[in-house]
Amino acid sequence: MSEMILRDAMSKALREALDQDDRVFLMGEDIGAYGGAYAVTKGFLEEYGEERIRDTPISESVFVGAGAGAAMIGMRPIVEVMTINFTLVAIDQIVNHAAKLSYMSNGQFKVPLILRTVTGGGGQLAATHSQSFENWYASVPGLKVVVPATPYDALGLFRASRKDNNPIIFAEHAMLYRVRGEVPEEYYEIPLGKARIAQEGSDVTLIAYSGMVKVAEEAAEIFYRNDISAEVIDLRTLSPLDLETLVNSVKKTSRAVVIEETWKTGGFSGSIASDIQEAAFDFLDGPVLRINGPDVPAPYAKNLEQLMIPKASWIVDQVKYNFGL
Amino acid sequence: MTTTLNIDKELALDLYSKMLLIRRFEEETERLYRRGKIGGFLHTYIGEEAIAVGAIPVLREDDYVIGHYRDHGHALARGLDPKLAMAELCGKSTGLSGGKGGSMHLFDAEKHFMGGHAIVGGQLPLAVGIALGIKLKKLDSVVMCFFGDGAVNEGEFHEAMNLASLWKLPIVFMLENNLYGMGTQVNRSRAGGPDIYKAAEPYLIPAVQIDGMNLIEVRDTVIEGVEKVRKDQTPIFIESMAYRFHGHSVADPSNYRDNEEVEENRGRDPIDIFKENLLSANFATNEEITAIDELIENQIDDIREFAESSPEPEEIELYSHIYASPEEELNNE
Ligand SMILES: Cc1ncc(C[n+]2csc(CCOP(=O)(O)OP(=O)(O)O)c2C)c(N)n1
Ligand SMILES: [Mg+2]
C-alpha cells in the first residue's frame, strides 16, 4: 500500500494509459508546456512528446469533437477540458455527436472517448467558474459519467473507463486533488456502475458523490456521536447508476438522504430520490430527503460562497427535523 | 533634446497618472492576494497598461466597453471608481457588484462598462449584440471589445467577426496580443502565425497591428479608428502587440517562458516609455513625475483601506438579482 493524493492517482492512471496502449493520446488546453491547469499532466510533455501530449488552442468545440472523431476510427483519446464550465462551449459535440454515434449508426461506430474535466465550487471563482454539470451529462443516454471521491477510486475507475467503449465524462472535483488516501501497488479496477458503501450503518442512508462524500462522512461522524448509525454510499458513477445498492441500503435503514453540490432544481438527487421511492416505497419511514446547494449562481465573496456548498450540519438538521432522529 | 508630443500636456499627464494607477493598483492586488484578502483567480494587467489607457479614454461616455477577465486595467481606464473595484476584488458589499462578481467579472452599467467575461471568447457575441442594439436604436455610439490572442481560436471569435462585418456593426475589435494564452505561445496555438490581425481580412474588416507598449501609438490609432467606425458604422480590428510581465494569474510561476524573454520585454515597460516621452517633450520635470508617483501611492492607500474596512455582503444578498425584478427599469432606458 502506498498513500497518494488524488492528483497523483490521476497522473498515475494517465501514465498507465499512455504506457500500455499506443492508441492513447492526450489533448487539451495547457496540458503540455504549462503542465496542466491542475498539474495532473506535469512533466508529461517531456516524457511522452508532442505527438501524444497535444496542447490545443482554446477551441473546446473542435478538440472535443476531434476526440470523438479519432475514437470513431479506433484511437483512444483522453481529452482534458480545463473545467466543466468550459465543456459548455463543446456541449454540441458531446451531446449531439459523441453521445449519439453508437445509437444512430446502430452500433457501427463506437466512441471510446474519455473527457476528463474539473468540476465543483469552493474556490471563490464566481458564477462562471464554480459549476457542477455532471448531473446534466448523466441525463444524456449514451454518455457515462464518473465522479470519483478518493484517490483509490480515481485510479480504479479510470482503469475501467479506459476499457469501456463509450464516451465518458470523467469529472474530478477541484477541491479533491489534494485529498490523500491509500492506493495499493497491485493492479485493481473498479467497475463502472458499482457504488461503494463508504461506511456501514443501520439508521439512515446518506447518498453522495464527488466532493459531497466527505460532507456525508462528516455528518455520519456527528450522527455516530449521537448514537445514530448512518450508512454512507458513494455513487462513484452517476451513469450507470447503481440503484440496487441504494435500494438494498434503504431497505435496511428505511431512511435516505441524497446530498449533491449543485442546484436543487434539476439536480440528480431528484432523480435518485424518485428512483428510490419507486423501488422501495414500502420500506421508507419518510420522504427521501434532498440536500443540494441553493438555486443561485455562485457568488464570488467568500462568506456568500460558503452558503452555497452543502455542509454536514445541513444534513444533520434535516434528518433531525424530518425523521426525529 | 526636446521632442514634440502630439497631445495636450494636461491630458498627457492625466494618461500617465492613469497608467501608473493601474500599475500600482495591480501590485496592490497581488499583495492583497498573498495576504488572503483576495481569493479565486487574479489576472493582472501589469505591462499592458498602454493599451487600455491609450484606447479607452478616446471613447465618449455613450460608447461601450466590454472585455475579458483581465479587466482591472480596462475598468480603471474607463474611469470606474478604483475603490469600488478593489472592494469587489475583496468580496465586499461596497464592491462594483456587491462582491458577487469578483476580479474576473467587473461591471458598471453607468460607465457603460459591460463586463469582464471569464469564459474565453464569450464577450465577442455580446459585443456584436450591443453594436446591433446601437444600430437599431439609431445611435452613433461604438463598442470597444477587448480580447486576448487565445480567444481568437474559439469559434465565437470567427462568428462574431463575420456577423459584425455582414451587418456593418460599429465595433472596435481590440486584440491584446501578449503572445500567450496561459502557457501556450501563439505560434503553438494559431495556424496563421503571430500576425493575428490578418484573421480580420477574410471578413473584410480593416485591420492594423501596432505597438501596444507605446501609448501614443495606441491612442493615435484608436482616435482614427473610432472616428471611422462612428462615421461608417462598420467594424475595425486593432491588434496591439503586448506582453504580460507577470504570470497568467498570480498562481502561475510562468515556467514556460524563459527569463531572457521576460527581461527583454520588461525592458520595454510602457510606463517608462511614456515617462521618457513626457520628459523629452518638456511636459514634466523629474520632480513633477515624482509628485505624481506620490499622489498615486497615497491614492492606493485609500483604495486599500476602503476595501479592507468595508463590510462583507449580507447573507440575504446571496439571493438578490438572480432574476431582474419587474419594477426595475431595463438597462440604460
Ligand atoms: C472557454 C474557456 N476555455 C478555457 C478557459 C481557461 N482560460 C482562462 S484564460 C485562458 C487564456 C486566455 O488567453 P488570452 O485570450 O490570450 O488572454 P490573456 O490571458 O493572455 O489576456 C484560458 C485558457 C476559459 N476561461 N474559458
Ligand atoms: Mg494572451
Which tags fit this structure?
heterodimer, A: 325 residues, Rossmann fold, 12 helices, B: 333 residues, alpha/beta, six-stranded parallel sheet, two-stranded antiparallel sheet, 8 strands, binds thiamine diphosphate, binds magnesium ion
Describe the structure concisely.
The complex is a heterodimer of chains A (325) and B (333). With 325 residues, chain A is of the alpha/beta class. Chain A is 36% helix and 21% strand.
Question: Could you walk me through the main structural features you see in this protein, from its secondary elements to its overall organization?
Answer:
The complex is a heterodimer of chains A (325) and B (333). Chain A is of the alpha/beta class. Chain A has two domains: 2-183, Rossmann fold; 196-323, 3-Layer(aba) Sandwich (Rossmann fold). Chain A has helices at 6-20, 44-48, 60-72, 91-98, 101-104, 134-138, 151-163, 212-225, 243-253, 268-280, 302-305, 312-323; strands spanning 2-5, 24-28, 53-55, 76-81, 114-119, 144-146, 168-173, 180-183, 196-199, 204-208, 230-234, 237-239, 256-263, 289-293. In chain A, strands 3-2-4-5-7-6-12 form a seven-stranded mixed beta sheet, sandwiched between helices. In chain A, strands 9-11-10-13-14 form a five-stranded mixed beta sheet, sandwiched between helices. In chain A, strands 1-8 form a two-stranded antiparallel sheet. The relative contact order of chain A is 0.12. Chain B has 333 residues and is of the alpha/beta class. Chain B is built from eleven helices and eight strands. Chain B is 41% helix and 11% strand. At the A-B interface, helix 3 and helix 11 of A face strand 6 of B. The site of magnesium ion has 6 residues of chain B, from strand 5.
